[in-house]
Amino acid sequence: MSVFLRGGIAGGFLIRSRDSSAVITKQRRISSVGAVTGPSVNPTAAIEQRATWLPGLEPPPYLDGKLAGDYGFDPLGLGEDPKSLKWYVQAELVHARFAMLGVAGILFTDLLRTTGISNLPVWYDAGATKFDFASTKTLIVVQFLLMGFAETKRYMDFVSPGSQAAEGSFFGLEAALEGLEPGYPGGPLLNPLGLAKDIKNANDWKLKEIKNGRLAMMAMLGFFVQASVTHTGPIDNLVEHLSNPWHKTIIQTLFTSTS
């Protein structure tokens, strides 16, 4: 009797295990069919999200991420017009390059001044310096002529891309400049290292340039504020801060200047 009972129990377990395995197999088949026939999902698109200047903020539709350094920042909607956006891109690029040159020049000359290597004026007084080789009026006229010529050529190339690369349009220096696209002249004069000869695939270089340019513009703004508040150069401000980091900060400086 016990033998038959044990055999019946064992047989019941065997039947249940076979039934359960069949159900599991059927569920697996159903799930696999659903995975194949269901809507396709791109895991990369689901994971990858576009970086914006404010996380979670939906960028405006005209800033689609194709521009170098585009993080959807346009709170005033200045780039809604495509023509205006194209001009603002070039304007930012030029200002960024001037800011990078300005920051490098200010820091270099200020370092020479503070170390006593050269008797140079502080950067915000440099424009009032009198030079022996030319008067101030002469220098202003020369600067207006040179800058006006360069900016006019840049604007003409912006309006009609490639027009300034025509033979004889730049005193025979067209081959030396070898313009790549508006805003990105090349050649041995302006691109001696040949870092971005293939300008269409130079997105990384464009991004690095505009990021450094934006940082330089913020640094220039800081230099202006420093000069207005402390009446000294950036190197002097840095040395003073390092001499007493806990009490010589921007907060104490602004507080004492307004009191």
UniProtKB/TrEMBL annotation:
Q: Cross-referenced SUPFAM superfamilies, in alphabetical order? A: Chlorophyll a-b binding protein (SSF103511)
Matches recorded under InterPro entries: Chloro_AB-bd_pln (IPR001344), Chloroa_b-bind (IPR022796)
Gene3D superfamilies from the entry?
Answer: Chlorophyll a/b binding protein domain (1.10.3460.10)
Q: Does the keyword Heme apply?
A: no
GO BP term (any one): photosynthesis, light harvesting
Query: In the record, which residues are listed under signal peptide?
Result: none
Where in or outside the cell it occurs: the entry states: Plastid, Chloroplast thylakoid membrane
Q: Which GO cellular component terms are attached?
A: chloroplast thylakoid membrane; photosystem I; photosystem II
* Coiled-coil ranges (or none): none
Q: Does the keyword DNA damage apply?
A: no
Binding-site residues, chlorophyll b: 97, 177
| Residues binding chlorophyll a | 92, 95, 208-209, 212, 214, 226, 241
Keyword annotations for this protein?
A: Chlorophyll, Chloroplast, Chromophore, Membrane, Photosynthesis, Photosystem I, Photosystem II, Plastid, Thylakoid, Transmembrane, Transmembrane helix
Taxonomic superkingdom: Eukaryota
What biological function has been recorded for the protein in this entry? Answer: The light-harvesting complex (LHC) functions as a light receptor, it captures and delivers excitation energy to photosystems with which it is closely associated.
Q: Which family does it belong to?
A: Belongs to the light-harvesting chlorophyll a/b-binding (LHC) protein family.
What is the protein name given in its UniProt record? Chlorophyll a-b binding protein, chloroplastic
Q: To which species is this protein native? A: Raphanus sativus
Q: Which gene encodes it?
A: LOC130504712
